[in-house]
Amino acid sequence: MSLPPVRSVTLDEIKAARERTKGVVLRTPLVKLDTGNGGLDIRLKLENLQPTNAYKIRGGVNAVAMLSDEARKRGVWTISAGNAGQAVAYAARAAGIPCKVVVIDSAPQAKIDRMRALGAELIPTPFDVCWRALEEHAFSGMDGTLVHPFDDHNFIAGHAPIGLEILEDEPNTKTILCAIGGGGLITAIGSAIKAVRPDVRVLGAEPETAAPFARSWAANAPQTFPERQTTFVDGAGGSSIIPRMWERMRPVTDGAMVVTLDETRQAMKLMAEKARVISEGAGALPVAAALSGKAGEGPIVAVVSGGNLDMKKFCELIAI
Q: How many domains does the chain have?
């Protein structure tokens, strides 16, 4: 299968995506996290407040809106652990077109239920098979248009206004931290930031159990992470950095950070206690990285990418 060449997301494309999606996407708030006297200046970009409780709705709405009439007739499909699936299903339902989701079979039940409620047809599939489909942009039996959950120019452009919003709300931002799964979010935010404020650092955050970006950063080349473990951080941490995504990510990022699962749980707990924010594991990775002190001085913006998880599971995770 021949894929279009990778190219940079331009500021004009980002502004156009912002205008295109403004009727659906929420301009999420940037709030200060109480870290105590003398604590770090950490701001939370609350993408968990989106209609699907995750940032992916930005890309889903933008990508579906830009489909041709012919592509719409064939319907859409995607590959997801839950958040991209909800985003594409939400956009497809609004457009009146069918949607299928090749869903990772270890996805949380809360995400599965929400995708079904949005009208998506689900095809549960093991993680390794899903990751291969992500690399190949293909899955047997799919006849619609693939809206790739990260290696899709229009999907990425849809997320990028997050970067503009951050700088509008806190012009003195020094560092922005994003969780990394496939790399679409950090590519999007990095593209916006480097277009207008190249001095602001953009760092990726991963769990210790699945950290291919940190490995790739150290090697300055895309790497695999075959020892990947499935954990509650289901929305981040892949088994590799796909070379096409490394090509997108590397020019607009400034480094990688790895945090432990315990640090991630502590960050989830702190956000709940201090800001009444419900975050899934992936959404807490940037906060955990910021709290480590290794991201430097503030203002540090941690992108809380999503809050889709079962409440019983959330309570178990923060009972530490």
A: 2
Q: Which two tokens stand for residue 79?
A: 């590959």
pLDDT tens string 66-119? 999 888 889 999 999 888 999 999 999 999 999 999 999 888 888 899 999 999
**Residue 68 to residues 23, 90, 145, 199: CA-CA distances in angstroms?**
20, 18, 10, 38
Strands 175-179 and 201-207: parallel
Give the range among 91-95, 167-171, 190-194, 247-251 with minimum mean pLDDT. 91-95
Greatest alpha-carbon pair distance for the chain in Å reads 58
Strand duo 175-179 + 145-146: pairing = unpaired
Buried b (16+ CB within 10 A) or exposed e, 307-320: bbbeeeebeebbee
The packing angle between helices 261-275 and 311-318, to 10°, is 110
**Rounded to whole angstroms, how far apart are CA atoms 89 and 70?**
18
Question: CB-side exposure of 180: number of CA atoms within 13 Å?
Answer: 38
Which domain does 186 fall in, by range?
A: 11-53+159-318
Burial class for 184, CB neighbours closer than 10 Å (0-12, 13-18, 19+): buried
Quick check: is 202 in a domain? yes
- Here the CATH number for the domain that contains residue 103 is 3.40.50.1100
Given a contact cutoff of 8 angstroms between Cβ atoms, the answer to whether 204 and 254 are in contact is no
Amino acid residing at 202: V
Are residues 148 and 176 both part of a single domain?
no
